[in-house]
Amino acid sequence: LSLISQSMLAQNANYDEAKIPPYTLPDILTGVNKTKISNAKQWEANRPALLQLFAENVYGVTPTISTKQRFKVLETNNNALSGKAIRKQILITFDDYPQLSGINLLIYIPKHVKKPPVFVGLNFEGNQSLGNDPAVLLTQNWMVDFQKNPERVRDHRALEALRGNAVVESWPAEAIIDKGFAMATAYYGDIEPDYAEGWKIGLRGAIGMADDQKWSAMGAWAWQLSRMLDYLETDADINSKKAIVIGHSRLGKAAFWAAVQDQRFAAFISNESGEGGAALKRRWYGETHEIINKNFPHWFSGKYKTYSGNIASLPFDQHQLFALIAPRPVYVSSAEGDQWADPNGEFLSLKNAEPVFALYGKKGLGVDAQPPVNTPVGSHLRYHYRSGKHDMNAYDWEQYLKFAAEVVNK
Ligand code: GTR
What we know:
Blueprint: H1 3-10, H2 40-59, E1 69-79, H3 80-83, E2 85-94, E3 103-110, E4 118-123, E5 153-154, E6 157-158, H4 173-178, E7 182-187, H5 203-206, H6 217-234, E8 243-248, H7 250-261, E9 267-271, H8 289-295, H9 302-305, H10 318-323, E10 330-337, H11 343-351, H12 354-358, E11 377-378, E12 381-389, H13 394-408
Parallel strand pairs: 4-7, 4-8, 8-9, 9-10, 10-12
Antiparallel strand pairs: 1-2, 2-3, 3-7, 5-6, 11-12
Helix pairs in contact: 6-7
Bound molecules: beta-D-galactopyranuronic acid.
């Protein structure tokens, strides 16, 4: 296809597998310096250059931000969730950036397990939105009005009624606790509000970035996840060596980038992260990079926008981003009602990362094509395609808890 017709295609979403123009993925076992990779050592020698390519072209290069961090215990309770859990609310602040409100971490730890592994992730509408625990602090930060319900969010601020009302059934605290895992979550707007100019009052503005095109909101949110892990490393009640970073949709994209950059995360779970996350960029299906950059100009770096109409010239694709997580375990999930995220493109992306996991002796998904709905496949690398809509729901968590028990905590 000519560049012009490619760019015309990419401005619209296609939902017909048969209409996807042929594409070739960059060879995952060829290094950035064009040499062949045949063992884990060579892969690791190549890893920093590949990571740098992703940073420069998509997510922005993470700046060095050196500031003293403080962890303040705002609240703790040893009888949370019907007495089954310890609840902690921790405020992380940065001495050099007092204009930032800080990260409000909500943590639940099961009482029946000593030093449990922990799920770490961001949430869309504040910690208070995830359950009906009245002691959870209401977020004061700017938020997208996802639900358009003036009783819950007014002037982009959460009201008391936005308690236990998450748009997505994202964090089933009791189910997580019952299986012997801890969870730690924070509102993504704590570090940067999610709108085009949000960077000015968020982390990027605070550190003095003159424009928003070099780094990205995705980069800032990934940075937030690493700061949450910094705290968890200091908490003796948690096994921070077994921290599973997880995210849904845009927060799945952020979690992906966090897992790649920060090897302290022991595993990664992508819940319908789609374009800019799990999905292959070269497939013309669902959301494209043209569409995402137009709708969310702040999510990725300026350089990413220059590939409009010419995505094939991008020197990598998302299968290589999965490879950057190797040998750590990865779970990818898609939903039938979420064709926008390109479910098959998410599957194929993880599938095409297998050769790098194999360098470490890690098995692949065990299937060649996307499995039918509600049929999880694989072990160390896992995938499911469930029925239902774009969401992170009870079915997803049931699988993630199994994965965490069988693979991460074995
Ligand atoms: C959509 C966006 C997706 C996904 C989603 C979400 O509007 O196009 O890439 O991130 O938002 O975060 O729910």
